[in-house]
Every structure is written in structure tokens, then in C-alpha cells.
Amino acid sequence: MGEIRNQVAVIDGLVAPTIVLQNARYLHSVFRDWRFGNIWIAGDRIVYVGAEMPKNITNTEIVDVAGKTIVPGYIEPHVHPHQLYNPISFAKYAMKTGTSVMLCDNLVLFLSLPNKKAFSILDSWKKLPTQFYWWVRFDSQSQLEHESEVFSMEAVLEWIERPDVLMGGELTGWPQLMAGDDQMLYWIQAAKLKGKKIEAHLPGASEKTLAKMRLFGANGDHEAMTVDEVEARINQGYAVTLRHSSIRPDLPELLKGIMERQWNIFHHLMMTTDGSTSTFYEDGIMDKCIRVALEAGVSPVDAYNMASYNVAKYYGVSNIHGMVGTGRFATLNILEDEFHPTPQAVMAKGQWMYRDGEEVYDWPETDMAQLGQLNIDFALTEEDFQFSMPFGIELVNNVITKPYSVNLHLNKGSVVQNEDECYLMLLDKYGHWRVNTFIKGFVGNVEGFASSYSTTGDIILIGKDIQAMKQAFERLKQLNGGIVLIEQGEVVHEIPLTVAGCMYDGTMEQLIEVERTLIHVLEQRGFSKGDPVYSLLFLQSTHLPYIRITPKGLYDVMKKKILMPAIMR
Length: 569
Hints:
The chain has 2 domains: 71-361, TIM Barrel (Alpha-Beta Barrel), CATH 3.20.20; 382-568, no CATH class. It has 17 helices and 31 strands. α11 (251-260) links the parallel β12 (239-243) and β13 (269-272).
């Protein structure tokens, strides 16, 4: 209450604003035009936008922004903040290019931490200049043992109760909902009663499926891959988020199709990079999406609103985000002009982040160890490397897999000689079980490869040589998580993932370099699918066709059955 009184006192001239942006040309998201005025800021809020200057400017920082253009801070509405990077490293990097509000996936936090611990961490992050909002997941994206205990009624409802959770989903497990899962339906209804949106995950869905899911409570979807699929979703009443990601860079073609059909629907659209891997972000995040929109001929007002106001309005937070207006957070991007969306200066919650290309904000230290650490306390034995499956998993692309018949050729009982074929093991991070099969189409010549980055946080081992696979596993243990490539007894490349076993404890700039090297060394050895990080992630993802390796065993997605159960160790 005292803060509000202080803000009103600024209007009355009793208190000086902290910052005034004078002679501002700014986007008015509701009038949908460019206006001129002065922006008064007190603490973290905008307290006035208009023609007047404050009467009291004692110790006020007055910045003349004549000739510049000011837009709201960009909002990324669909972030997976654990694609090797971690939430804080991604937030710091995103801030540089004007993305200062993020709606984040809670899956890793949910699977790796008790709610009390996770909530304590989220509450501590509220002090940061980046505004974090969250989803609440209703399913694991894989086949977990005791999933009903992990995704318990109590645990999910505790997340739903949080005011910083704005969305339920994404609903990758929607087939079980349609098959009669009333628990998921209850969670959807509970979330909607709390004012949350429900985000579907419906790639390739028919009109009838879209209609059914809309009736079940889905509000939005980000999986349209063609302009016809955009139309189908709009027809069924969905809010549509257009995707531009490392594995689905669909935005240019989607916008081209919308422009060609002259649809006046931009007020109903949002944009996302959908948790891309780090190298995709070298040239920006939401500013990159805005740039694509401008290049497609979208009007600047619509392009910026799709990355700010439309998102804030849809998720019910336009009273504090997405607009240069009184009462909103002073989270602003100062641009050369509306045709250059990468900002020259960034302000978040009334604090300068970047000015003239230089970081001017001293981020507080954040202890990433609080997200947990992977501690592997078991060893692999010869018995663990028994591979006798008559079929394995073939990668068609980053997303699609299919079964294939194994015609095994071994050298000295341990080395796969077949081209483009390797051993594949999924190993419980606690050492309780394993699933052994073969993989085709990942790489042509890798001796030993280990990754603790996976959908469930369990260990993936791939290779042609059992001894090299064991060495890669041992090195991963030493790192407390990571991605490791071994050849001839030596580490060819590694990425330490010391945060919860799946995230890099370093800057995005550093991660981009080590991830680029990973891609390069795998491409040298036959990887041709485009994004090896997503290939690793999707090996377990049972919302994608056709066959996956999961903690329960080898799983046929279409038939919804275990083809070979996991082996207890």
C-alpha cells in the first residue's frame, strides 16, 4: 500500500520519479499506433505516460530518447528452460535482446525436486529483473514407473494454486484424456477455475480432434505447421502461437500464408521459439521472431504486439506487462526504430540492464546447485551389456522413429560392425533398471557416448564398443552429469551438465560454443538429423510416433504397449 501511495505522490509532485524518458516515441498497444510523450518511472513501475514533465525532478535521471522508439519488453510464452542451458543463464542471455518475461515449463523442477524446495527457489527468483511465470505439467512425456505417484493429485494441485503459474500443460498426454482419463480432466478444470490457460500439443490433429480438445478445455496450441493448420485452430476457437524453433522454423512460411490470404487475425496470434537449443539463439530470441515477421511484411505494430501485448492479454497479465502504460512494470526496449527489433538499451522493472551494447546491471549471484546434482553411486558390469533384441529404434528424423529388424554383426563379442547402427541403453540414474536395444540412424561411427540429458533425467548410452560406452559412463559419473564422447580411450568432447544432471552451469555464450562443437564432432561421425540435442530428448518422448525407449521399457506409441520391459539390475 505504501508503494502505491508513493507512486501517486510522484504525480502530485511530492516525490520525484527515479527515471524520466523524455521525448519518447512509443508503441501504444491498444491504440495500435506510435505516440509521443514522456514516460515517468518510479521504482519498478511506470507512473505516467503523457505530454507533461514532473514538477519534482530531484535526483531524477532524465534521459532524452528523441529519435528512438520504445516498445514493451518482449515476452516468450513457451520456454523449456532446460535445453542444456538453465533458467538463469537463459534469462540473462534473453535480456540482452529484449526478452524479459518468460512463461516456463516446470517439468525438470517437478521431476527432480519436492514442491516445497521448488517453490522456495521460484520465490527467490522473483527478485530478479526477469519476470518468470510457469506452466504446470499434467504428464511426464514418457512412461514412468509409478507415474501416478509422481504426478499425484496433491503435487499437481499445489502447482495450480501458485499465482505465478499461468498455464496448464502443454498437454502432450492428451490421448489418455480422450481415452477417459478423468484425473487429467479434473486438473484441467481446476486450473481453469483458477484462471489458468490450457495449452494443447496437437501436431497434425484433425478438425474433430481439435474440437474435442477444445471442449475438454484447451485454450491454445503452438503446433500448427502449415497455414491450413493455423486456420483449423482459429476455426475451433484456439489462440494460436506461431513457432520458430531449431527443429520447426515454421514462422516465415506461416506468416507468408497468412499475409497471402489477407487474414486480419494478428491480434489473435503470438510467437514462440519453443525451447530451441542454444545455437539457434545466436541471433536473438523474440527479437528474432519479430524480425521474421517484419521481413514477411507484417506491420510493425502487429509484429511487436505478437511478442508482447497479445501474450500479456491472453494470459491475463496485461495490467502489468506488454504495454507502455501507467501501472505496468517499467520493462522497456529502446530501439533504433521499429524496423530494428534488437534493442540498443533494455530496462527491466525500472533498472537499466543494457545501454549502448554494454551490460550495466550486476546480476545477483544465483546458486544453481539448489536445483540439485546428479550423484551416480553404482558401476556397470559386463552383465549390463547384454544386447539380444531382435529389433531396435531407427531415427527417421529428429522427431520420428520407427522399429527396425536387427541383423547383428559383432567383432570379438563387443563391437557392432553394421554401418549406421549402435548399441542403445537407457539406464536408471539410481541404477535400479536398464533397457537394452539398438539404434539406427543416430551416428555412423561413435565408439562410446553417454548423456544424462534426457526427458526423464535417466542415462542414455550409445556406441559401437561396449568398453568405450563404459568409459563414457564413468566420465559422466565424474562430471556429475553431462554429455560425453569417447574414442580410443580418450575424451573427444564433453559438456558438463552439473545442474540437476541436465543443465550447464555457465553462460549461454559458453554453451553455444561447446554445443556447436558437439554438433560438429557428431556430424563428422555420421549424424545428419540436424539437432542431436533434440534427438536425445525425443528418444523417450511418448507423445511422438512410433517407438520409444522409456523407464518401463521399449514402448509402441501407437499401440500403447510395452514391447520389451525394462530389466531390473
